[in-house]
Amino acid sequence: MMSEMKQITLKRGKDESLRRFHPWVFSGAIASKDDAIEEGDLVTVAAADGTFIGVGHYQIGSIAVRILSFEKRDIYLDFYRQRLTAALSVRQALRLSRDDNNAFRLVHGEGDFLPGLVVDIYGDTAVLQAHSPGMHFQRDLIAQALTQVEGLDIANVYYKSETTLPYKAALDPVNQYLIGSYSTNIAMENGLRFHVDWLKGQKTGFFVDQRENRRLLEHYSAGRRVLNMFCYTGGFSFYAMRGGATLVHSVDSSAKAIQLTNDNVELNFPGDTRHEAFAQDAFKFLDAMRQDSYDLIILDPPAFAKHKSALQNALRGYRTINAKAFSKIAPGGILFTFSCSQAVNKDQFRLAVFTAAAMARRRVRILHQLTQPADHPINIYHPEGEYLKGLVLYVE
Predict the structure, then answer these.
(1) How far apart are the first and last CA of the chain?
(2) For 100, which of 23, 191, 231, 301 could close a Cys bridge (C-beta 3.0–4.6 Å)?
(3) Residue 113 backbone dihedrals phi, psi, to 5 degrees
(4) 231 is annotated as an active-site residue
């Protein structure tokens, strides 16, 4: 028996996408709603004829409801424990929890049927990030459920949502430990160790979504001079070093990121003189560097477009940065180039890169087309979940 919830009723014909299990209700689809529904409330969604559609979190904005279940059920501890257990089963099938790897994404929002929630695992610490008011209000319940998932062995749950929740909601979230406390910030990915700054770093502290792409880069690094632009914590850099690069230069505009990169390189390759890091603007660094200085370049910038309104500026940014890399990379060089902007689709990104290659008048071949790893799954009914695009290019 499901507990009584306030109800939202849709306009006629506006239930079609939900019948196909798309998990979003847009504000323009709503015909009426019960009085006193507040930000983050659990609500039931009904078709125009009163037929039950689903239950989800309400919020003010374009996406008015994120559906948690298309079945009539309570959203409480058992619900989260079941969904988290199902998410872990996928990661276990992927063999992501191993002696040489204890860092992975456990929950990827809609891709794990928990819209508005991200959970990254670093050893025995889970970093929980809410992207909706509803998940913010249920954070303690989710933290409790995380510690009860068999096979996960979580001792600490850190809540990090100060920059991810809608600012209009005025929730004033505080980054803090919900369970446990700080023990160590060293995690392991494919046998390489790294410091994770979940207290003050970007996202949850490390970009676990580039794990498989970093491993591919390692394969191409032997004997090459590598430039890692927008390096953040240096993930691509220490994979390149293990792959046998002759030199690795890491560049980021943030001095703190450069310190983290140096710390991570030292953690894995103490005293190795092949690596040098520079706290500089990426565009200026590419302008100033000598021709043919590098024969493997990584471009992994932060999202140039977080919203559709910034799309054209973002595409210009991708064209400019890639054209600079194409013009400077040594003949026979390899370019790993990425976009993590959800507002930029893969065809738009590819066109921007192709245009950049033409601007630089280089002959270019596509070796690989890259995307997010399997622990960042895409709900088949929610194609918007595909955000990471990448190309590996051979430049003559």
Answers:
(1) 66
(2) 191
(3) 60, 30
(4) no
Query: C-alpha 125: how far from its chain's center?
Result: 18
Quote the domain boundaries for residue 89.
77-189
On whether residue 271 sits in a domain, the answer given is yes
197-233 in b/e form (b: 16+ CB < 10 A) is bbeebebbbbbbbbbebbbbbbebbeebbbbbbbbbb
Pick from 14, 81, 3, 109: which is nearest to 53 by CA?
Answer: 14
CATH number of 175's domain: 3.30.750.80
What residues contact 272, with CB distance under 8 A and at least 6 apart? 241, 265
- Looking at the fold, whether 306 and 364 belong to one and the same domain comes out as yes
CATH code of the domain containing 11? 2.30.130.10
Same domain (yes/no): 216, 330:
yes
pLDDT in tens, 13-26: 999 999 999 999 99
What tens digit of pLDDT does each residue of 48-102 get? 999 999 999 999 999 999 999 999 999 999 999 999 999 999 999 999 999 999 9
How many contiguous H segments (helices) and E segments (strands) does the chain have? 10, 20
Q: Considering the domain boundaries, does residue 197 fall inside one?
A: no
Tokens of 234: 């240096």
Which 3 state secondary structure label does DSSP give 136?
Answer: helix
- pTM here is 0.93
Q: Positive or negative, the Cα torsion across 118, 121, 126, 127?
A: negative
> Which position among 340, 344, 391, 392 bears the catalytic label?
340
Helix (H/G/I), strand (E/B), else coil: 132: coil
With tokens 């929740």, the residue in question is 165
- Reported as a pLDDT band with limits 50, 70 and 90, residue 312 is confident
Give, for 143, the enclosing helix (H) or strand (E): helix 139-146
Last residue of a domain, one of 19, 44, 69: 69
Structural domains of the chain, count: 3
Average pLDDT, the chain: 94
Which residue, chain included where needed, has tokens 């502290």? 205
Amino acid (one-letter) located at 255: A
The reply to whether 166 and 53 lie within a common domain is no
Q: Does residue 298 share a domain with residue 227?
A: yes
> What's the mean pLDDT in 219-236?
96
